[in-house]
Every structure is written in C-alpha cells, then in structure tokens.
Write the structure tokens for this entry.
Amino acid sequence: MFTYSVVRVASVLFAVVVAVMTTHASASATPAVRTSTDAPVPSSGCRTAAPAGTSVHAFSAAGRSGDYLQEVPHVAARTPMPVVFDVHGYLQPGIMQNAWSGMGAYGARHGFAVIVPETHVLPPKWDYRKNSADIAFLSEMLTHVEQTLCIDKRRVYMTGLSMGAFTTSSVACQLADRFAAVAPVSGLQDFTWCRPARDVPVVAFHGTGDEILSYTGGTGSRGMQLPAPDGTLRTIGRQMREDKHPQLVPNAASIPGPNRCLGATQRLRIHPDHEADHA
C-alpha cells in the first residue's frame, strides 16, 4: 500500500531542487535507446497520419481498464515525434494533471506528443511496485501509442508528480529499454531492486517547502492528513502508525549520491504568481 498524494504550491517564495543523475545499470547492461544525435527510429504508426489536436482514448491492458488523453502537435505528415508520458499523482485524475502541468499545450507548441495515462482504479493511484499490473499497463500503452502515432522510438520520455514521480522512477528501472529519459517531480525514488537494462538519464525536481512529500524525507504533515488509499477511511498518518508502514520517501538531497550525479544539486528560488494545486 502506498501513501502519496497531492502537492500544493504556496504563493510564497520557495526553492526547487534539481538533481541530474542516471539510474545505475548492471555491468552487463547494453544501451537500448541511443543518443539524440542518431537518426530517428519511426514507429509503425508512421504509416498513417494522425490528426493533430487533443483527444481521449479508452485503453485496457494487463487486467486494467483506463484511458489516456493525447495531445498531438501540428508537424509534417509521417515525421517521427518525441513523446512525453505525463503521469498523475494520488487522488487526481489525468485530466487534472494535464490542466495543471500544461505539458500538452507545451508539447503542441514545441513539436512533441503528450500522453496523460490513467487507470479506472478509485481513488486515482498507481501501483509502481516491481512487475506490477500498472507498469505492464503503461508498457502496453506505449506499444499502442507507437502503433497509432508517428513516434521516434529513440525519444520516448516520462514525467510525473508525487505518486506519478514514484511511477516514473519505477518505469526508469523496469522499462529502461523503452524510455530514453525520465523527469520525476516531488518523489524521485531509488529502489533497492532497481536493475535497469541500461543507464537512464534522470532530471529530478523537489520543492524544499513540500508539506506532502518532505524534501528532507518521509511524508510531510499535510500528507499525513490525506485519506489512506486502502478504503478504510483512515488518514495516511493513521495507516502508517497502525500498519507500521515505512517512510518510503528518501531525503531528496541524498539521491542518488555524488558518484552517480553528473553535477551538484542546484537550488533555484522560485516566486509563483498564483496558488495552484499539483498532482
């Protein structure tokens, strides 16, 4: 059972932490996704031209029913596009993630497709464990997207916030042969079981004032007050005390360690001009 949820950005100065790293592959691993300097690898969907614009599509796989919001930019016909999967957090459906992240609109302006996935599990959440049905669902969804859109298979990416960041971290471990790079926000994980098929570039962001998933590790004070995902009407804090759940969120500054970073962690001062909820 996993206990992660909504992040609220206060309308005050706060700091964002950026860490650049790679998930660490085994010595025998070989890269399956090449650098961006190589020629595009068109997906099978390049045989037909998909219309530009926003649409929602039903999708089922791995015993899960769900759907995804799709944003396709205006590009020349049969031009392989990059694609970004934008993964929602706990309690928040995909349509809210798309509205708050603005990733779909940004992709439309900059020439890459955006996929916002969700299952129909209630409350909205992800099972990001090793070999979980949700990871298989996302893998099958990527296969489907490659068949229906003209995608450059060397430029497939994922980002997600909160529980979506946990899922993004898990995808980097389990689907390293399919996703070129990932960008988890407020929830980077360094799973002990992570043995990716190749080193995966990661850029991670976490606000130092996060009260849901604490930058210094663990679930924050506001996160403890959220409803538990097990349907018992308990709060997350009560569930963790009674069921002795471990604090699964590590200190963001301690990941991944200096031997796996391309550079030092950067701290940037941000001044948002309004208050907004994030998933």
Remarks:
- The longest helix spans residues 133-148.
- The CA atoms of residues 213 and 238 lie 16 Å apart.
- The chain has one domain: 7-24+48-278.
- The domain at 7-24+48-278 is CATH 3.40.50 (Rossmann fold).
